[in-house]
Amino acid sequence: MDFQLEPELVQIRDTVRKFCEKEVTPFAEEWEKNEVFPRETIRKMGGLGFFASPFPEQYGGTELGFLANIIVAEELGRASLGLACCLNMQSGTCPMTLLLNGNEEQKEKYLPGIISGELLGCFAVTEPNAATDVAGIATKAIKDGDHYILNGSKMWITHSSVFDVGICFAKTDPSQRHKGLSAFIIEKGMPGMTGMAEKNKLGVRSSDTGQIVFEDVRVPKENLIGEEGQGFKIAESALTYGRANIAGRSLGIGQAAVDAALKYANEREQFGQKIGFFQMNKQIIADMVAEIEASRLLVYRAAWLQDQKRPSSNESTIAKFYASEAAVRAVIGAAKIHGAYTYSSEYPVARLYRDVMLMTAGEGTSNIQRLIIANNALGWK
Ligand SMILES: Cc1cc2nc3c(=O)[nH]c(=O)nc-3n(C[C@H](O)[C@H](O)[C@H](O)COP(=O)(O)OP(=O)(O)OC[C@H]3O[C@@H](n4cnc5c(N)ncnc54)[C@H](O)[C@@H]3O)c2cc1C
């Protein structure tokens, strides 16, 4: 067993960290305040290979692996969770769905553009009345000659108003639940398809999130991924990677909370002492530090298993569950340390507070992760 990162991974971490210090952290507050979607920054990230590590070279990847991808997620999550939301669309569920389930033509057509950041991806599952209950999706895809006609609407979709290419899940057999679902590639500009960004969100405001409405949208039959009725299996196939990815981002925002708390506890003085001197503050700091370290081990293990091509579904679920809940606790800890200054825009804690809850909801809520972990432990798979 070796807990050291390979020199190559250290280099990736340092490169992303430097990029964030120069190109992300100085702008993170302003992007959030003014709901700026930093398209050019995402393009630069693509150009630097930040999305490429899990993918084969033939599609523009670098084959550096999933742990490399998680290290990118951690560093970006630490600098700006809003910006880091793009990761899942550029290197997680969206392109992984294509890589694992697409045919050769689909992979060659879309993967290089998504991975390079030239095309923005999206992954549209959630609907106004179907979120955790994925099989309850109501969007319909009815076959009509060489096309499918899509009608319905998606809600809370990352990149809803800016995406170039995406995966949309719809019912080809509305009489069925799981077995009626199919997966389609959708492209910007398809007549009848409208993407709208939700404005004034609580957090991750620099991420474009919102609705996509389908009104008689004609999707060519070549855009079906796999076969009709395989949609649920296809959605699940990429989720293991999506969960590890969000676990990496959770680790990053948790670390940002630790960074902020340590800095403030070393600066602020009361009763003639740095506030880090007080034992009750030390307890908060110790809990945060220990939990974020534990998260890092769980998250890196899940990614390492993926790199070994070993089963990692349960480990990714545990990592996502633990790291996201630990991140919430760490942000609350940082807020306690900052006291009234949590409310000041001079410090990053308010932004972390607004952003962090997404980590426990996206890619399956903590309740659902708990159910999976418990069912696996009980042998009720
Ligand atoms: C910023 C942002 C970006 C997002 N991006 C995307 C995206 O790109 N693509 C996409 O498809 N979706 C996206 N989502 C949606 C996100 O994945 C869903 O919010 C998430 O799946 C949870 O759905 P819900 O919040 O509507 O919860 P619901 O399903 O309505 O559940 C509400 C509560 O009930 C609990 N619950 C529900 N069913 C059960 C059960 N059987 N047992 C126990 N508890 C249960 C849940 O855990 C939750 O606590 C995004 C959301 C946000 C906020």
Automatic annotation (TrEMBL):
Cofactors required: FAD
Oxidoreductase keyword on record: yes
Protein name: Probable acyl-CoA dehydrogenase yngJ
GO molecular function: acyl-CoA dehydrogenase activity; flavin adenine dinucleotide binding
Lineage: Bacteria, Pseudomonadati, Thermodesulfobacteriota, Desulfobacteria, Desulfobacterales
A UniProt-annotated Pfam family: Acyl-CoA_dh_N
Family (UniProt): Belongs to the acyl-CoA dehydrogenase family.
Domain Acyl-CoA oxidase/dehydrogenase middle: 122-217
Keywords: Branched-chain amino acid catabolism, FAD, Flavoprotein, Oxidoreductase
All residue ranges annotated as the Acyl-CoA dehydrogenase/oxidase N-terminal domain in the record: 7-118
